[in-house]
Amino acid sequence: MEEYKDDVKDVDFWATNSEEGGWNISSTDEGSQKMLEQEDEVTTKIQMGSEVINDYFIDDDISDDERMILNMGPQHPSTHGVLRLQVELEGEVVRRVQPVIGYLHTGMEKTGEELNYFQGPTNTTRMDYLSPFFNELVFSLATEKLLDIEVPDRASTIRILMTELNRISSHLVALATGGMDIGALSMMIFGFRERELILDFFEKTTGLRMNHNFIRPGGVAADLPDDWQKDIEKILKVIPEKLKDYDEMLLDNPIWQGRLKNVGILTTEECLAYGITGPSLRASGYAWDLRKMQPYSGIEKYEFDIPVFEEGDVFARWRIKVLEIFESLKIVEQAMANMPKGPFKIQDKKITPPPRKRLDESMEALIHHFKIYTEGFKVPEGEVYTTVESPRGELGCFIVSDGSSKPYRMHVRGPSFCNLQALPVVMSDSPIADAVAAIASLDPVLGDVDR
Amino acid sequence: MKENLDISIEDYFQKVEELKNDGYEMMVDLTAIDWFRKKEPRFEVVVNFLSVSKNKRISIKVKLNDELTIPSITSLYPSANFYEREVFDMFGINFENHPDLTRILMPDDWVGHPLRKDYGTGRIPVQFKNAPKVD
Asked: What is the rounded CA–CA span in Å between residue A155 and residue B69?
């Protein structure tokens, strides 16, 4: 064997002909199948969470031959986008998980530094593509806080109306894709069908089904369309009926309960340690909702409840999304009943562009229009961190302004990015079939993770 | 409701430990600012904490020295893991004692740190001088 080894030279296959300008391919991380080699206490804590619950079967007799590393994704329907997971399996038990992200990274924070505040929502709305209104809202709130202005009541109410409708549509997608992952295929059709109702209203109001760029610093882009109450009434009538259908199909279904109950448990301590917010935290028994605790856009005026579950399993996380849709419908109903009259954006010539009609009549309006669309408006120096409760948790926006019309640094704290850290905790020591249910219950949106 | 603190890099880890014992259960956000040619020192790390029991927020700002090294707080707050990797990836700031300090969003063999101010965006500037005439 020794002699044979000498004969084989270390020939780099790709490096041949390199003198004549041949291939020179540097290595990428693609295909590398490596987990962490050393597992000290900290790493184990990160992998397993602070408290491991032994509710899964763990077969100690499995030999090392059955230990293998499997790549789930990035192109895999149940990973909700381009999420790649390196899973270490022992037989059918998931031992360790390492999320690999960045496949959708387009440098939106860098782009945000190139666009001015007026163009900013165009960029942020594309981050979490299932809840675009929240991204626009948090950016607008941050800018308004730096400018020290308050938007008119009608603008705030329209913002609440649109964001809560958006929460419903986002949760419907979560229910639909979650159902699909577990095998309830009709749930997928149902969820997307009802979401269409809301998207139609969005299209009527903003012109687009997704990525609306509707909520802007200083108010909203346009007023609500004529007869908007009829559309909302239809939504308020249809969606509760359909939700009852879902409950009839799934709530007492033994297969659904068997797949979801006592699966992927997150304790309250783990949620706090990993910074998990939103429905996942509330499903683990902590009643924390920024709409109640740190309200924004006057949402403290509305009456609604926060559903809380103690179990912290996948079933609780599914159920809480259904109940939150009912609560959001309550807010939408109140917003519709109490919609104030008045302007839908702030009447400040330096911040809001004049209406189209005025451009033909007034030279001053033309100048303001030109200044806003070319240079943008200047924002005083300062730093601000604002938060809203997005369907996935705390969505934060950190803006540093240097006094110019573009943010010096724009950072968005995406809830999915943080919630994804809990995947190893949720998935480890459970069968691989439950892994898919666990991913679906955390509801990550990869546009929000990678930004 | 929100406090801002400036902390020196020596006291950073100790202060975070105090905050954790003080009831700030969550580390919600960790990011950095690059003050290229505007301020000295160049980099600042900003960490946001949230106390869900007291409904309070606190924001810590640490100025980095030229070594660009700061202790990792992953052992105190496991949620800092991804954020520290992101800041390492985007700004090239090293976190001591981090369990797995690798690039997270960019490919492993990427050169440079994109969110630094001296890293170009690749945008081609618009020039009107030699634009073709329209008749």
From this structure: 45
Distances (CA, A) of A153 to A115, A150, A240, A248, A333: 28, 9, 28, 40, 17
Chain A nearest-CA residue for B72: A42
Give residue for tokens 């291939």.
A23
Q: Exposed/middle/buried for A48, CB within 10 Å: 0-12, 13-18, 19+?
A: middle
Q: Does A42 reach chain B within 8 Å, measured CB to CB? A: yes
Whether B115 has its CB under 8 Å from any CB of chain A: the answer is yes
Say if CB A421 and CB A428 are below 8 A apart: no
DSSP string of A184-232, one letter each residue: -HHHHHHHHHHHHHHHHHHHHHHS-SS----EETTEESSPPPTTHHHHH
Of A42, A111, A418, the CB nearest to B79: A418
Question: What's the first-to-final CA gap in chain B, in angstroms?
Answer: 62
Beta strand pairing call for B26-34 and B43-51? antiparallel
Which chain B residues are closer than 8 Å to A424 by Cβ? none
Judge whether B109 and B102 are in contact, CB under 8 Å.
no
Residue pLDDT, tens place only, A406-449: 999 999 998 999 888 888 888 877 888 888 888 888 888 888 88
CA quadruple B100, B106, B108, B114: dihedral sign: negative
Cα–Cα distances in angstroms (integers) from residue B103 to residues A108, A246, A423, B84, B111, in the given order: 17, 42, 19, 10, 11
**What is the C-alpha to C-alpha distance for residues A300 and A311, in angstroms, rounded to an integer?**
28
Using CB atoms within 10 Å of the CB of residue B132, give its burial: 0 to 12 exposed, 13 to 18 middle, 19+ buried: exposed
Show the tokens assigned to A32.
Answer: 């590398």
Beta strands in A239-347 (DSSP E): none
- Does the beta carbon of B27 lie under 8 angstroms from any beta carbon of chain A? yes
Measured between CB atoms, does B94 come within 8 Å of chain A? no
* Total number of domains constituting chain A: 1
Asked whether the beta carbons of residue A105 and residue B105 sit closer than 8 angstroms, the reply is yes
Assigned superfamily of B2-96 = NADH:ubiquinone oxidoreductase Nqo5 subunit (3.30.460.80)
Residue whose structure tokens are 């409701």: B1
Extents of the domains making up chain B: 2-96
Tokens in use for A24? 């020179």
Tell me the pLDDT tens digit for each residue of A377-406: 889 999 999 999 999 989 999 999 998 889
Any CB–CB contact under 8 A between B48 and chain A? Answer: yes
How far apart, in whole angstroms, are the C-alpha atoms of residue A142 and residue B40? 26
Could you give phi then psi for residue B101, rounded to 5 degrees?
-90, 90
ipTM of the complex: 0.88
Query: Domain containing A238 — which CATH number?
Result: 1.10.645.10
